[in-house]
Description:
7-stranded mixed sheet; 7 helices
Amino acid sequence: MIRPSFLVCRNSRFGPDPDRAIMTDAAQQETRGRIAYSACGPVAVPLILASGSPRRRDLLQESGYSFIVIPPDASAEDAADESLDGYHVALDRACLKANNVAGKLARREGRSVSPQVILACDSVVVCRNELLGKPLDVLDAERMLRLLSGTRHEVHTGVCLKPLDGRAECTFVETSILTMDALSEEQLESYLASNQWRGKAGAFGWQDGNDWLRLERGSGSNVVGLPLERLACELERFRI
Length: 240
């Protein structure tokens, strides 16, 4: 089994790590559509996943984490500063989601201090200086895919780990770099008809196994929406 060499713990807390190796085609085939491997491994910390994303839920389940799901309100990220770059927008939104769920829990009467940690994430695709979130409809998905077609682009996932016992929260951003081949009209129409673009930042999913999308640098799980490798390392500080 191939274990890409870049899947290790890093100490850098700001921005993408320039030392991460570019993935080989063989490593991409091994990790595409599967959970990524971590040098740290799953950490026994009770989590509250502040997300309604089935992909993030599946990643946590497949990695062996214990968690419950409490999605944030749909309006939770409305206060995000959209004038920031994609890196900081993703982080800002993740923190807003975590705070929203923390507020929900605080309003529950009789709730005592808990060792649980809220896990909130947000992913943003950046292409040609444009921030791409989830498409509104098929026309918006088509616009995004035409923009991405034949380009190298970035996926930033912001993560906020917010403990409920008063300890300091932990925030970080992971960045992956991908290249999308120039899509033919037939490929574009086929993908749009499949509806696989729904609910995905940039209108595409790494886990869908499309051969016209290549991961050049960073983590495949990060593109899916949850950087498992970095998450395991950062959760060490909250181990009970």
